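Appendix C: a fully annotated inverse folding record. The material below is reproduced so that readers can follow the format used throughout the book. The structure is listed first as tokens, followed by the designed sequence.
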């Protein structure tokens, strides 16, 4: 009988279950705390980067305004310099004419003085004639003295104009140096914007490569993401197939995700370019490869817009067969030239 009662006893697992449940709750609370802290620090980092980019945009606007003001001041200075040079040329021409008159009068004076000396040496000359000659000589001397004073005044005026021109040229050099410095600063700021856009372009292409996978007919060439047309469209058609629609929607989802992290100062645009091979199209709907390439690019653009990409960030263009990647007359070359290119660029 005692053996039978011991066999009916059951094992009590309730305390172990309570301990395991408590441990699981503590782990979940700890993970949630780590997640909240990570979100907080990430938000702080993004906010700091946004403030820095806004400050850079304000500095660029101030630099552009200063550059415009400097250009306006330089234009006014150039006009003043041209006017001063014209005045200098007129004064120099007048001075040259006065110099010729003075030379002529001096020659006349010398001639009269020579005649006076001859008359003084002549015995028995008439007193009336001698007085007349002397009077003529005195008038010539007076005119020569007047012209000399006028020449001196002209020289002083020329000196003043030359000094003004030198000062204007000095100011012009200073203005050019300031403009050159502003141009350098503006170029540095623009280079920063281009570098920032390049960073987002690289991130966009990297994520897009992960989403689309290593599929044949999809490749990155420089700043372009290239799809072979056969992956998206049937031959001679501008309607996306089911697989093509899925590929374009993946692109839209990746772009929207990237756009959330872009600051407002990055003025980006996604451009879709359509290309065909050089063989003529025989469809009544598309008179030439231009229309086909443009229609395909527009179809991709509309699908992106329908998937949530802002319409003001989209552009489409059709190039027909006129920008081939391979000029050979082979099926492989034709297939390579039939493509859709997506560019992440600055507007």
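Designed amino acids, in order:
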């Amino acid at each position: 009988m005692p053996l039978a009662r011991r066999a009916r006893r059951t094992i009590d697992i309730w305390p172990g279950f309570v301990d395991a449940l408590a441990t699981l709750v503590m782990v979940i609370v700890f993970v949630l705390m780590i997640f909240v802290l990570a979100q907080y620090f990430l938000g702080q980092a993004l906010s700091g980067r946004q403030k820095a980019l806004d400050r850079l945009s304000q500095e660029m606007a101030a630099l552009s305004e200063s550059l415009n003001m400097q250009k306006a001041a330089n234009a006014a200075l150039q006009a003043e310099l041209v006017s001063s040079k014209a005045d200098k040329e007129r004064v120099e021409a007048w001075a040259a004419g006065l110099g010729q008159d003075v030379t002529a009068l001096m020659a006349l004076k010398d001639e009269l003085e020579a005649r006076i000396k001859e008359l003084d040496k002549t015995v028995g000359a008439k007193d009336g004639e001698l007085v007349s000659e002397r009077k003529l000589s005195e008038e010539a001397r007076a005119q020569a003295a007047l012209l000399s004073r006028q020449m001196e005044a002209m020289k002083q005026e020329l000196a003043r104009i030359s000094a003004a021109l030198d000062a204007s040229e000095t100011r012009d050099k200073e203005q050019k140096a300031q403009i050159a410095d502003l141009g350098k600063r503006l170029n540095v700021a623009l280079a920063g914007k281009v570098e920032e856009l390049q960073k987002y372009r690289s991130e966009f292409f990297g994520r897009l490569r992960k989403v689309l996978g290593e599929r044949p007919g999809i490749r990155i060439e420089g700043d372009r993401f290239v799809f072979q047309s056969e992956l998206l469209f049937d031959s001679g058609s501008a309607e996306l197939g089911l697989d093509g629609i899925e590929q374009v929607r993946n692109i839209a989802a990746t772009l929207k995700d990237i756009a959330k992290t872009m600051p407002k100062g990055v003025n980006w645009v996604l451009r879709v370019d359509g290309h065909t091979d050089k063989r003529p199209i025989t469809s009544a709907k598309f008179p030439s490869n231009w229309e086909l390439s443009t229609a395909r690019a527009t179809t991709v653009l509309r699908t992106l817009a329908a998937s949530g990409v802002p319409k003001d960030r989209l552009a489409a263009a059709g190039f027909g067969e006129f920008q081939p990647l391979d000029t050979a007359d082979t099926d492989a070359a034709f297939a390579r030239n039939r493509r859709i290119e997506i560019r992440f660029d600055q507007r």
